[in-house]
Structure formats: structure tokens, C-alpha cells
Amino acid sequence: MQAVTTVPVHGGEEHHSHDHAVDHGHEHHQSFITKYIFSTDHKMIARQFLFSALLFLLIGGAFAMFIRWQLAFPGQPIPVIGHLLPDTWVTDGAIHAGFFTQLLTMHGTIMIFFAIIPFQVGLFGNLCIPLMIGTDDMAFPRLNMISFWLTPPAGIIVMMGFMVDGGTAAAGWTSYPPLSAIAGSGQTLWLIAIFMIGFSSIAGGVNYIATILNKRAPGMKMFELPMTIWAIFITAVIIVLGTPVLAAALSMLFMDQALHSSFFLPDNLVTVKKFAGGGQPILWQHLFWFYSHPAVYIMIVPTMGVVSDVLATFSRKPIYGYKAMVFAIMAIAFLGFIVWGHHMFQSGMNPLLGTTFMLSTIVIAVPSSIKVFNWLGTIWKGNIRFTTAMLNALGFIGTFVIGGLSGIFMAAAPVDIYIHDTYFIVAHIHYVLFGGSLFGIFAGIYYWYPKMFGKMLSESLGRKHFFWTFVLFNMTFFPMHVLGIGGHIRRVYDPYVYDFLKPFQDLNVFISICAFGLGLAQLLLVINIFWSMKYGKKAPRNPWKANSLEWAAPSPPPHGNFDRPIRVYRGPYEYSLPDMEEDYLPQWIERTADVKQAEQSGQHSAVSAEFSSGGFAPKQENKH
Amino acid sequence: MFFDWMKWFPENVSTFGVGVDALFEVIYLLCIGIFFLVFGLGIYFIIKYRFSPTRKAYHYHGNNLIEFTWTLLPTLLFAGLGVYSDGMWEDAKYKNVFPKGDLEVEVLGQTYLWNYRYAGADGQFGKTDRSLMSAANPFGIDPNDPFGKDDITTVNQMHAPVNKNIRIHLSSVDVLHSYFLPNMRLKQDAVPGSWVDIWYNATKTGKYELACAELCGSGHYAMRGEVFIDSQTDFDKWMDQQMMAKMPKSTQVANAPAPVTPTVDTTATTVPQDSVAQNGGSAR
Q1: CA–CA distance from A88 to each of A103, A162, B85 (Å)?
Q2: Which residues of B touch A266 (CB under 8 A)?
Q3: β-strands B157-161, B225-230 pairing
Q4: Looking at beta carbons, which residues of chain A come within 8 Å of B56?
Q5: I need a labelling partner for A575 at 20 to 30 A (CA). Which of A358, A458, B242, B258 fits?
Q6: What gap in Å lies between CA A265 and CA A242, rounded to an integer?
Q7: Nearest CA of chain B to the CA of A423: how many Å?
Q8: E-strand spans in A377-524?
Q9: From the CA atom positions of chain B, what is the Rg in Å?
Q10: Does B10 touch chain A (CB under 8 A)?
Q11: Does B193 contact A at CB distance below 8 Å?
Q12: CA-nearest residue of chain B to A398?
């Protein structure tokens, strides 16, 4: 167990003696294709997820820009590019109503299934799990490769909708039948693509669970896992339990839509006669939200872990209430499966269920508030370093709190009667998914980029990116609460058809201008990522002086990750121990009682020798 | 500007809406409180405990009593909120709890318009048959049923008396729609194949806008209706007009005190869908 192969991949690494484990024998002769494209190395797969999610983030963001243009200046030609777009999308440069519904559908679909989930699950799962549990790779590297390589084809398939008659899916990212079931081939492509991306999630999920349970470094107990790993572990459980339900629902809708069965279609639809009928449209909503509410947690729980780790590292403090945090995530995951009905208060389901789901939904606020209080407890009496990663993590907490509070309004079913399907919901979802997830993702990218690429990201560019994103994000999405209170419905091409919404045009213009700025600000991140890859400062092994195992590996880690046997002696949050000079004590450093005593009496110890040598020299003793 | 959110609401004109607005305000004040507590603490910690090379952070793993406290407090708070909300929810949506209708109206969403049916002079809805449903006869009214002959149907325009309980039976003929009356704080999805009952009691006369709140296609944004809350006399007058228009010509002359010209919007049972979508589209 734990035969550590050390294969120098980058020239600068020191050369260690090879431990020729049989299953790694071929890796010396990697071709370009096996190394960069069909790679089974978790770090390469993490990079692939990073780049594909980043690309989809920009595409989904571009769709949002079109949507914002239309809401602020309805019927006016889009500047510069408006006249270049095809006639099926625009007339004289102004967006069609049909194209608008395609845009809002694709914005939601791309952002949720192709940007946020791949960032959360694909990027952090792949990057962090083997490194943070101290092993060489995933339990099933090939399954891991498949989980990535389902993503680009799925993305291409869903985008191909723009090239078929009738355009892409246009029933919203939720694809409620009958509208989705009576739609054209764009919807078929959507169903196939989401099915594939769901399969990718499941493949990732089982792999993560197997890896975390079986491949932890010797001595590492479950309650010595960093919060990131706990969060990803629980997320993987949610994925494995929830996604098959989505797959079933998608299959049923595919049959309705392409083969004219009637799972979700009642008798005698007036405008559509090709179905036998006898189905129930609300069934789709139950199945869809049974997956998609837990999916909301798939989209935020991993970053909750990331943010916890970033906060601890840069506050130089242990996580406040580590076990409470783990149990809170478990509670969120469990409750996440029994609250789906709160998306359906106004759907026409039995109102008795409204009562049930209101109560369970309100209960889910409790573990969320436990997490927020524990995060506050973590920075309390810390010694806070404001790196870009830390700024993003703090930004995450701020926006997550606002998003959580606005959730209480819609959890209270009577208030939801009014604000359901208004911009209040849009504000809420963006506060948790953009403000929450994306700031957490940024924090994670800034935190682990040195480990991923062996280069530091530019801190000054990073700060600018954080500042503009944070300010413009709040200016874009906070006023949407006001729109929602004013009754501004969602997914409307031209809100000013309604007299009661006419006064809100000025606010919509303001929001749109901020949104354009917010979109532009994201280019700073892209520039930073690519610029630093070439020109960034070389990253040391442990640039943040953090405790978890990934910092024991070289930056970037070679194939097989660690250049020394790893053994775990303690949890990952032993920061600022009072009896030590250094303010951190990594998980992999042995510190016996004798050493401790010696240190207390002021003598030079083995431990402090290791610290002073800077790079944590490999331990000599072999534990095998 | 952003802290006084209540003023952004459209005027509330329903009995039920008073409670919704009050509950919103309770939650809003609660949220403001939590917001300042959390942000106040957070910003205070960020400033107070910012990096200093001479200080060392406090090595502390947490305290179970504190964890327990800040688990219990939100639980009690939110449970109280849930119980308080539930009573209102039952009043709004439980069929057996909310009041019997002084006026009952059937509403059918249809891709991009709203159909209404009143019981007419006999006060009874005619039989309907799902197999008769079509674009021309969205309710599927049975032409052979005498109760159905005087049923009044309108499109996109609803009249209702003020201070009366209006009970709506809601459904849809094609895709999902959602019946949203912002001023009445009323919203309910219209689901094809099943009927849902909702109610409101409007306290002020006037013309109010009705919106479709569930994406129903590219013309979704233009699925706008109007609801007229009339005084009882105005409503009766309007109802008489509708009944007159419905009667055969001969009886109309014999019974009517004065000839009545039917208004366009009320007698139309069909509106070409395209024209509706285009009208909405060309509004801008």
C-alpha cells in the first residue's frame, strides 16, 4: 500500500530514486495525447475541468449580457455585433422574443451544468482529493478520464441547438413540460446533453467516494480530513443519490418529447394533438427538483469546504467547531433531499405538501447559520492575511449570508405566493450561485493555483479582479430584490408591456450597465490565469504555510504526487499552537512528546530544524 | 433607498395581501437584524484581527456550548416563523379552509391568453367535456346542456365585484401558465389536466393587471390580462350586458329595457393566437 512512485516530470525537480511500482511502469513514455488530452492523471483532469468550465463561464456570461441588453433597452439593436447576428435571432440587430427565451434557457443550463458544477465537482474534486488525502491518484483513473470527456461533447451537443431549426431548448433550464415536451429538436439535444453531463457527475461521484474511503494516507482518520474533502465527500454522496433520479426524469421527458409517450402530458392538450395523454405535468417538477434541489447543494457545498480551509489558513487559526461544521454539511445534505417541494409551492401540488415543505425548508436554515457562525468564529482572534484567496472567501461569506437571508422570504410559503417567479428569486439564486459558489471558486483557484501550475497568480491583478467583481456583483444583483418586490416577473422578454413595471426601466438600465462591467471584470481572472502560467513567480511547495497534505508535494506535483512517503499525525488545522514558534504544524510532520518537551525548554529540536530549512525536507524513515 | 423595501410593493388591494405584506415585513426586519449582526461582527473581526507580525492567532478549536446555543436559537426562531406562516398558507390555499365564493369563475390559460367563464343567468356552469376542448371552445362546453347555453365567456378581461370572495377554478389548455395578480398578492400555476382552486377578496375598485408568471413560450411576456374590480352595481350592470349579448335576438328585444351593444372583448371566445402575440410584440 502507498507505494509512492516518483517520476520527475518537470526539469526543475530534484531527482529521487525510482520506486518502480508495476502499475506505473508505462508513464515514462507519455505521448502528447496521453499526457494532455486523454490523461488519467487527476491533476491534468482538474486542469481540463478548469479550462472547460472557464470557457463555459464566459459563454454563459455572454448570454447574460444579451439578456441584460434586452431588459434595459428592449427592441433596440445590440451595439456593434447586433447586425452581424443571423436573422433567426435578431431583426435589425434587436433580439427576437424566441431567441430571448433560448438565451435565458442556455444561460441557466450552461452556467449550472457546464460551469458551476464542473468547477465545484470536477475541478476541486479532482485537484484536491488525492493531494489532500496524500495519495498518488484517484481510485479509478480511467473512470475519471471518462467523467471529463463526457463534458465537451455534452457542451457541443447542447450548443448545437443554435444550428437546428427552431433554435435551442427554450423552456428554461428547468424544462417544465408540456412546454419542453412539445418543443423541437433543440430540446432533444438539451435532454441528451444533460443526460451525459449527469453521467459525468455520477462517474466523478463514485470515484470520489471510493478514493476518500480507501486511499487516505496511513494514519489519516476521517475526522482528520480537511473540510474541503469532507465537503466534496458529502457532495459526492448527494450526486450518487440524486443524479440517477434526474437521469430517469430526463429519459422520461426524452420519450415524451421525441417518441410522443405521455409521462408528463395530460389528455387532450388543445394545441398539441400528437400525444396519447394520461400523464401529469407536475410529476416532472417533483422528479426534477428531487435532483435539482440537492444539486443546489452540489453547487455550493464544495466551496463551503474550500472557504473553510482558506479562512483557517489565512486567519492562522483552527476551524471553529470542526465537527459541528462536518455535521452541519451532513445535515444540509440530508435535509436537501426533503425540501424540493419549496420550488413548487405555487405549482398546483396539494397545498398540504406546501406546509410540509415549508417546515423542512425552514429547518435547513439552521445548519446554514451554524456554518456562518463557525466561519465568524474562525476569523475571531485570528491573525488575518488579506490575500486574494482570503478576500474572495470573505466575499463568499458576505454574499452567502445575503443569499441565505433572502431565502427565508421564499421559504415562508405565503410570501412566496407573491415573490415566486419574480426577480426576487433571480436575485436570490445569483446571490447563492454567483455570490456564493463563484466567489468560493475564485478563492479556491487563487489558493491552489500555485499547486496546480507551480506559479503564483498575480496578487495585484487578483485584488483588482476581486474588487470589481464584488462591487459590481452587488450593484447588479442587489437591486433585483427591489424589482422582485415590485412584482417584476422572470423570463419576460419585454417587462414594459405591463404598466406596473414601466417605472422599473431605469433600475433595469442601471443593473444592465453594472452587469456589463461585471462581465468585463471576469476577463481579469482569465488574463491572470494565462499570464501567470507563463510569467508568474515560481511557487514554493507551501506558499501559504498551510497544514494540509497537498502542500507536502512539490509545486506542481509530479505524476504520483508525492516525492516522499506520507504519514498523517494530526488534523489539518493546528495553527498557532501556543507552544511553538511557527504558527503552523502540518499534518505530515512528526512531533513526538520528547520533541515537544525539548521545544518547550527552548532547545533546538528536530521539528524546528525542519521548519527553518524552509521546504520541509523529506523524512528519512520509511513507514512501509 | 434600499432599506425601505416595503414602498416598492405595488398597492395591495386584497384582504389576504395585508397578511402577506405584514409577514414580509416581519421577515424583512428579522433579516435586517441578522444582517447587521453578522456583518457587524465580521467587519469588526476583519479590522480588529488584521495581520500583525507581532501577534499570534488564538489557538482554539471551538466550544460545544456555544455551538449548541447558536443551533438552538435559529431553530426556535425559524420554527416560530414556520408556524406563524402556516396559518396564512392554509387560509390562502387550503380549499377546505378558505371561504366559499360569492362569485365563482373558471379561468383557463391558453398560449398567450386567459379565458374566463361565468355561470351566467342560471348561476350554474354548463357541463364540459374534455374531448370537446378546442381553440374555439377552450372550456369544452357541451352545446347540448341547457345550463351551458347561458355561460358567459370572456378573454383577457375579468370583472369582479369589490369586497366579495372571488373563487377561481384555474386550469390550462396547453402548457403551464401562472395566474399572477400582483395587487392581490395572488399567484397560482395553471396546470393542464387538473383544476386548482384559489380565491381573493379585493377591497378597492379599479383596473388591475394580470401577468403570466410561468414561462409558456416566446409570447410569455405578452400574456397580459386585465381584472376590473367594480362596485356591486357596476358589476351587475356588466353582467346584465353579457347576458343580453348571449340571448337570442328576439328575446333580447322583448326583455331588454334598452338595446345593449356588446363590447368586443367580452363576446369573443376565440382570439387568433398569433394576433395576440403580435399585439404584445408590437407594443414596443
Answers
A1: 13, 10, 47
A2: 192-194
A3: parallel
A4: 316, 383, 576, 578, 583
A5: A458
A6: 24
A7: 11
A8: none
A9: 26
A10: yes
A11: yes
A12: B39
Q: Order the strands of the B157-161 sheet from edge to edge.
A: B157-161, B225-230, B206-212, B177-181, B186-190
Tell me which DSSP letter residue B50 carries. Answer: B
Q: Nearest C-alpha of chain A: how many angstroms from B166?
A: 17
Cell numbers at A539, concatenated: 511557487
Tell me the DSSP string of A45-68. Answer: HHHHHHHHHHHHHHHHHHHHHHHH
The answer, for B98 touching chain A at a CB cutoff of 8 Å, is no
Q: Which of A495, A292, A310 is nearest to A394 (CA)?
A: A310
Cβ within 8 Å, pair A486-B39:
no
Asked casually if ipTM beats, i.e. exceeds, 0.90, the reply is: no
Residue A396 CA neighbour count, 13 Å, CB half = 32
Between CA A289 and CA A284 the distance in angstroms is 8
What mean pLDDT is predicted for residues A297-309?
A: 94
Question: Which stretch of DSSP H or E encloses residue B198?
Answer: strand B196-201
- Collapse the DSSP code of A331 into the 3-class scheme (helix H, G, I; strand E, B; otherwise coil) and give the result: helix
Q: Does B7 touch chain A (CB under 8 A)?
A: no
CB B111 within 8 A of CB B273: yes
Q: Backbone phi, then psi, for B186, in 5-degree steps?
A: -120, 130
Would residue A316 be called left, alpha or beta, if left means φ above 0 and alpha means ψ between -120 and 50 degrees?
left
The secondary structure element, H or E, covering residue B161 is strand B157-161
Cα dihedral B73→B77→B78→B84 (10° resolution): 160
pLDDT at A192 over 50: yes
pLDDT digits (tens, 9 = 90+) for A92-106: 889 999 999 999 999
Give Cβ neighbours of residue A255 (< 8 Å, ≥ 6 apart): A261, A263
**Average pLDDT of the segment spanning B199-222:** 94
Residue A556: asked if its preceding bond is cis (omega within 30°), the reply is yes
- Nearest residue to A138 via CA among A228, A55, A186, A203: A203
Mutate to test the interface with A, among B11, B12, B38, B223 (most CBs of A within 10 A): B38
Q: pLDDT above 70 covers what percent of chain B?
A: 86
Of B89, B180, B188, the CB nearest to A348: B188
* Cross-chain Cβ contact A486/B173 below 8 Å: no
B41 beta partners: none
CA dist., res. A173 & res. A110, Å (int) = 9
Torsion sign (Cα): A33, A35, A39, A43: negative
Beta bridge partners of A489: A422
Per-residue pLDDT band at A29 (split at 50, 70, 90): low
| B88 CB within 8 Å of a chain A CB | yes
Set of cell numbers at residue A591: 512531533
Contacts of A440 by beta carbon, 8 Å cutoff, 6+ apart: A300, A302, A303, A304, A306, A307, A392, A393, A396
Look up residue B134 and give its three cell numbers.
378546442
User: For residues A360 and B48, what is the distance between their CA atoms, to the nearest angstrom?
Assistant: 38
Which residues is B128 bridged to in the sheet?
A: B141
Q: Tell me: the pLDDT tens digits for A346-382?
A: 999 998 998 889 989 888 888 988 999 999 999 999 9
Under 8 Å between Cβ of B105 and B116? yes
Instruction: Catalogue the long-range contacts made by A154-157 (C-beta closer than 8 Å, 24 or more residues apart).
Output: A154/A113, A154/A114, A154/A192, A154/A193, A154/A194, A154/A196, A154/A197, A154/A200, A155/A52, A155/A56, A155/A110, A155/A114, A155/A193, A157/A189, A157/A192, A157/A193, A157/A196
Class of residue A105 by CB neighbours under 10 A (exposed 0-12, middle 13-18, buried 19+): buried
Closest CA to A257 of A181, A353, A334, A356: A181
